[in-house]
Amino acid sequence: MKKITLILLLISSSFLSAQVGSLDVDFGDNGKVITSINGNEKGYGIAMQSDAKIVIAGYSNDPTFGENFICIRYNTDGSLDTSFGNGGIVSTDVQLGSDDRAKSVVIQNDGKIILAGHSDNGSDRDAAIVRYNTDGSLDTSFGNGGIVLTDFENNQQDLVNRVRIHNLTGNIIIGGETVINSTTSKPVLARYTSNGSLDTSFNSTGIRLLWITSLDYQYKFSLEDFQVKTNGKITAIGWRDFINLSWSSDYWACQVNTNGTMDTTFSTDGVNTYNGSFNGHDRAFSMLFRNNGNILLSGAGYVDDLQYDVTAFELTSSGGVATPYTRIEYNTQIIPQDFCYGMAEDSNNEYILVGSSGNTSNKSITLSRLNSDLSLDTDFGTSGKVINNFDSNSLNEAFDVTIQADGKIVLVGYTGNNIVVARYETEDSLSVEEFANTSVSVYPNPTRDFLNISLNNYSYNKGTIVLYSTVGSKILEQKIDSQKVSLEELKTGMYVYELFLDNKLVKRGKVIKQ
After folding, report:
1. Separation of CA 37 from chain center
2. Beta carbons of 295 and 345 less than 8 angstroms apart
3. Is the N-terminal amide bond of 444 cis, ω within 30° of 0?
4. Where does 378-488 have alpha helices with state H?
5. d(CA 236, CA 238)
6. Mean pLDDT of 242-270
7. What residues pair up with 249 in beta bridges, in sequence order?
8. In terms of Cα–Cα distance, which of 312, 309, 311 is closest to 337?
């Protein structure tokens, strides 16, 4: 018989009494982190590192240099990661004195961080991509000193809403629009090699302007999101609006082949529009591929009245509508405008939708969860909905969301004039220990150097502990043959552990290495 004491993190007992969809009180200030830089900033994009640190993209208005790209990295508890940039924050003036807004962030397999948005020097607005090393310094091997600027078309204003990486090739892809005037714009995709050069194997220039039909010149387009298939095909979504007519905006989607030509298996010309179920404004802002190969869109639309409701619906792989429209109303005001800007899928094939509800003077952050059949999951929050205002601010919105390996939901947006990151509980995160063997105890919370287990006379012949990152990668496997298991070589962050006695899993939990 062996008796071993193991020092390990147990999530606090408040987890057990928390509700699904409630703020995670162990993150930041009772579930939220508000970051003020110059007192006028917003967060737009969010990504999760393999060590569970949180990276966000946005902008801050500097009184001297105008709006700058902002990249912030937080530890798993919501504190700023002081090993990154200047106290966890990196501010980048893309062009001297320009107004620069980062709208999206993605993390490469090597840990380098890519932000994308636009840079406006006062006379011209160009697409902008910036790549950072893991410590927040500019990656000088990328573009011009870490920065790539692209003019989609001459004498037009270019915007970027999303950046993604094709993991098979390492290519970097951005999507947005090039604005001709207040009523006319073109949706656009651009693809780059990993060093920041335009990939000329994509439409010969690296840039694919997406005016396809002879009547597209009449519309204002916005490409809001896209996903890249393993084979390199790109599916993109957004909206198309006939600005000169009331209630004339439609959902829009297209599919582009890996060489930049239109995919005619997705409608006859590779493009489709969808008018919802009412002749009103319909706009898609986020998309995901479903396990069946179909496409899930979310956004907002005038479903049967003259107000925006959150909407979601599914397209077939050939561009047809596969499901009825799901509609969510938050009823935060007499005539609220409800928008979904970001979406993520959890491990149970459920969908988290984040956005806002309100009007120009009062807006609340909103979350909802949809079941796999796209029905509203009434077990989440209050009848499937969560509404938050922070610090008594009248304006609050969420623009992007990600889900941790433990099931917790993390969103980014703004409250008042500052960036906000908030984390929420789910059933998975509330199940602190799936195997809660009372003969085995673990303590304390957290640890810096080692773990100990107390088995309380639990008899066994062979014991093993395995630690995983929060994205499921095995980090450490060690036999239990002493009173301490060293964690000195591990990076700071959250880990999941599994304890096996005589090849039987007897306990699972979480540990934070400081």
Report:
1. 22
2. no
3. yes
4. 427-430
5. 7
6. 92
7. 241
8. 309
Q: What are the strands of the beta sheet with 220-228, ordered from one edge? A: 220-228, 234-241, 249-256, 271-274
Prediction pTM value: 0.82
Which tokens go with 184?
Answer: 């006319």
Please write the tens of the pLDDT for every residue from 130-155. Answer: 999 999 999 999 999 999 999 999 98
Element (H, E) at 476: strand 474-479
Cβ count within 10 A of residue 97: 12
Q: Give the count of beta carbons closer than 10 Å to the beta carbon of residue 182.
A: 8
Considering the chain, what is the average pLDDT of its residues? 89
Query: CA triplet 13, 15, 16: central angle to 5 degrees?
Result: 75
Q: Is the dihedral of CA 264, 280, 298, 35 positive or negative?
A: positive
113/130 Cα distance (integer angstroms)? 8
Q: Where are the beta strands (DSSP E) in 407-472?
A: 409-415, 418-424, 441-442, 450-451, 453-454, 463-469
Asked whether 401 and 352 are in contact (CB, 8 A), the reply is yes
Residue 483 confidence (pLDDT): 60
- How would residue 475 be classed by pLDDT, with cut points 50, 70 and 90? confident
Question: DSSP labels for 285-347?
Answer: EEEEE-TTS-EEEEEEE-SSSSS-EEEEEEE-TTS-B-SPPEEE----SSS-EEEEEEEEE-T
Measured CA to CA, the distance from residue 290 to residue 305 in angstroms comes to 29
CA distance 432 to 429: 6
- Do the Cβ atoms of 45 and 103 come closer than 8 Å? yes
Q: Nearest 5°: phi and psi at 15?
A: -60, -40
Q: Position 351: which residue type? A: Y
At 39 the three-state DSSP class reads: coil
Tokens of 473: 């990668």
Region of 358 please: left (phi>0), alpha (psi -120 to 50) or beta: left
Is residue 233 within 8 A of residue 257, CB to CB? The reply is: yes
Judge whether residue 95 has pLDDT over 60.
yes
CATH architecture for segment(s) 441-513: Sandwich (2.60)
Question: Where does the pLDDT of residue 470 fall: very low under 50, low under 70, confident under 90, or very high at 90 and above?
Answer: low
- From the number of C-beta atoms within 10 Å of its C-beta (0-12, 13-18, 19+), residue 481 rates as exposed
Query: In the block, which residue shows the tokens 């952050």?
Result: 365
Assign 468 a pLDDT band (cuts: 50, 70, 90): confident
